[in-house]
């Protein structure tokens, strides 16, 4: 996992600030510094972003960045990359432990290696500023605690996941249903307590923005992430004659097949099915990133019968090469502008 992240950095060794400038890393650093107390003249004004835009970046990952500034002597860019790398390695170790203890695949080590490179978008996001590695850590830990009957720890992981990425809220019905199917009614009814953490975050939003639902005020009014009908994003892309409609179709198909393949593994099937259904209603253009939430199970575990074959191991070098090209080409296209970056650094150093 660490080596695959370092591979992403190779073309930028003489200009590593390009890694830190990749969206959404800079806003996460700004939240880590300001804790959402954003003035009207914040560094991102040239992008026409209002102060409450930063409510869209939940505090789990920014707080971890702030914690790591103790190690980096106050350097926020270094703390952000360190937070990503530590949680990425942690997610790989937790995923391996889950695969091994639950006997989910033929070779836990091989599947954990593949996890470092698949899907390609994941290889990019475990090298830049992103909350996905931390989210994975919490999801894998929740399943490990579930297997050990540690309900309080499961609820704690769900609570932290919900304040890391908003899709962590889906873990409440997922684990609630798992407990219900086990006949553990009290534990099922205790799972919603995990939402208290998110309620506390929204309470802080109300204190600083005057809007308890500031997260949704930006997300729903501007990004328009949710549609009332399934597959709306695919239908729109197809109607516009966009080639990305093909990508959407393949994503829904592959993830759907992988989810169905988990039918006999009830807990993982429930997890993937809930996410798959939810994402059929998602209209945001970056669907591949959102679907990372359940890709380790739907793709790596669901397709283990194929991926465990010896022939697949021979194509790993090609996969690494293609992932590297993808990450190297993506980074320059999605960076915060130099002027904004310079202003941000002034704030972070103050």
Structural class: mainly alpha
Number of strands: 0
> Nearest-angstrom radius of gyration?
20 Å
Give the overall form.
globular
Average pLDDT taken over every residue: 94
- DSSP strand content: under 5%
Q: Report the sheet with the most strands, covering strand number, pairing sense and barrel closure.
A: none
Write the H/E string, N to C: HHHHHHHHHHHHHHHHHHHHHH
> What count of structural domains?
2
Q: Helical content, roughly?
A: 55-70%
Kindly report how far apart the N and C termini lie. Answer: 34 Å
| Low-pLDDT stretches | none
Counted by DSSP, the helix tally is 22
Describe the structure in brief:
65% of the residues lie in helices and 0% in strands.
What can you tell me about this protein's structure?
The chain is an all-alpha fold. It is built from 22 helices and no strands. It is globular, with a radius of gyration of 20 Å.
Write the layout of secondary structure elements.
Blueprint: H1 2-9, H2 17-20, H3 25-34, H4 60-68, H5 76-102, H6 108-115, H7 120-125, H8 132-147, H9 151-162, H10 171-181, H11 185-190, H12 196-209, H13 214-223, H14 232-239, H15 244-260, H16 266-280, H17 287-290, H18 295-301, H19 304-307, H20 310-314, H21 316-330, H22 338-349
Q: Keywords, please?
A:
22 helices, mainly alpha, 350 residues, 65% helix, 0% strand
